[in-house]
Amino acid sequence: MRVIKTLREMQTVAKKWHTENKTIGLVPTMGALHTAHLSLLRKAKIDNDFVVLSIFVNPTQFEPSEDYHIYPRDLARDLEIIDGVGIDIIFIPEAADMYPSGFKTTVEVKELSTRLCGAVRPNHFQGVTTVVTKLFNIIKPTRAYFGQKDAQQAIIIKRMAVDLHMEVEIVVLPTIREEDGVAYSSRNLYLSPKERQAAQVIPRSLELAKAKIMQGERVASRIKQQIQDVIQSEPLAQLEYISICEPESLSELEIINEGTLIALAVRIGKARLIDNITAEELS
Amino acid sequence: MRVIKTLREMQTVAKKWHTENKTIGLVPTMGALHTAHLSLLRKAKIDNDFVVLSIFVNPTQFEPSEDYHIYPRDLARDLEIIDGVGIDIIFIPEAADMYPSGFKTTVEVKELSTRLCGAVRPNHFQGVTTVVTKLFNIIKPTRAYFGQKDAQQAIIIKRMAVDLHMEVEIVVLPTIREEDGVAYSSRNLYLSPKERQAAQVIPRSLELAKAKIMQGERVASRIKQQIQDVIQSEPLAQLEYISICEPESLSELEIINEGTLIALAVRIGKARLIDNITAEELS
Questions:
Q1: Which of A9, A247, B152, B267 could join A261 in a cystine, given CB atoms 3.0 to 4.6 angstroms apart?
Q2: Which residues of B touch A (CB under 8 A)?
Q3: pLDDT, tens digit, for every residue of B85-107?
C-alpha cells in the first residue's frame, strides 16, 4: 500500500497501469472510514487489478454553514481500518492542488441537483460532481464505487458519466447498516449516545414503510405520513424531508411502483443523516 | 482518411491508439471549413501521430435566437478543402448520441463565460465547454487545437483543462486573415459582397489601435474611442462591444499592458463577427 499526495505522481501511476491494460477500481471518500467503505473497497478489490482509495474532504461540497471544518479527519485510524484489504494506492491530494489558483470550472447535473438534499444543500452536488470529475480525469478508473445510502449522489454521478461519455462504470453497492439498523455514516460520529439511540427511528420508519408497501399500500402520501409519524415520535429527531420519487429523474410520485425510491433526511443533534429504501419486487 | 459517425467506433479507435502509446491531435470544428481550420489541422499533423477532425454543429452553444438552423453544413465541400492534409479520422457524431436522452450535465467556467461575448450569448460558452469535455472524454487527445480569433473561447478552454485536470495540451494558433485583413470565419459566408467589404472596418480599427499603442498610447478608454470611431464610420457595421482586458481573468483594464487583449464584436447584416489583437512587446 502506497500513499500518494501529489496529482502528478497519481497520474504517473495510473498512466503506467493504463499502458499495461490493467483495470483500476476507485473508491472516492472523505475519510472517516467505516464498515460501509470497506464493503466498497472489498468489491473494488475483487473486480479490478488495482484499487485506489481517495481520501479528500472536498470543501466545495459543503455549504458555508456546514461541517467542513469539524468533519472528522484521522488518517491513522483510516489506515488501521483498511489494513489487510489489499488497497494499492491511498490518494490524499491537497485542496490547493485539487483547486488550482484561479479555479472557475464546475460540473453540474441540472434538475437532479436541486431536488431532495439539493433543496437544502444548493451547492452540494455541484461540489460532488466537480470533484468526482477531477478524480476521474486524474485516475481514469475502470470502475468507481459508491454506496446506495447516498442514493441521490449515485443517481447524479451515473447521469453525469453517461452525459459526458466518461469511460467508467459506476458501481452502486447496498447500504450497510449497524446491528440496530442505522446506516453506517461518518457523521454518526457527531451523535451522543442518546442521539445515536434516537437515530434508530430512521431505519424503523423505513422498515414500517416497507411493511406497509408489502401489505399493498401504494399511495405515496399515506406512506409519507406514516414515516413522518414515526420520526416525529422521537423528540431528538427533526425531519428535513421525505421524498417518494422516480429513481432516475427524482420526480415526486403519487403512486409507488417497483423501483420507486423512498428517501429522507433527518437532523439529530449536530448530525444531518440520510437514508433510503427502494420499493422492490412488488407483486 | 476514415469517416466515423458513432461514438463507440471513435472510442475504439482512440483506445487502440492509446494502448499503442500514440499521440492524437484533435481539431474540434463545426464544419464550414476554411483556411484557418487548415492551419490548425496542419499543425496537428506535424505535432501528433494521428489527427482527428471533429465536425459537429453543436446545438447547445447557439442561443435560441441565433443561427443554428442556418449554420452552413456542406460535408462534400469540407472534404474537398481538407483533401491532402493527411487527416486520419473525420468524426461526425449525431446530436442524439452526443446528447443522450435525459441529458442534464453541463460544464461551466464561471465568470469568464459571462464576460465579452458571454454578456450577449449567456449560454454559448457553457455549450462550448460541455461539448469540448465530451469530445475530450471520447477521444482523449494529446493535444487540441483552437484559433486565437476566438480568444475568449481559447482562454475558457485552457482554464477548464487546468481546473479539471484534463490531460490534454490546449494549443492556440494565430488568427489567419484574408488578403484584406478580415479574419477567416465560417460566418463570413453570411455576408453579401457589399457587407463583406464593409467587414474590412474591423481589422482596420484594430490596426489603428495597434498603431496608437505602438506610438505610446496606454489609456484603454482612448483606444476604445478610436476603435469605436472607425467602426461607426461604416454604416453597415453595428458595434456590439469593445473589450480591453487582462487575458486570463478577462477583467476590464484602464491601462494597456503587455499581453492585454483588445477584442470586439460587430454585427454586419446577418453575421456577428469577432476579432482581437494582443498588445505585445510594448517598450
A1: A247
A2: 7, 11, 18-19, 21, 99-100, 102-112, 129-130, 133-134, 137-138, 159-160, 162-167, 248-249
A3: 999 999 999 999 999 999 999 99
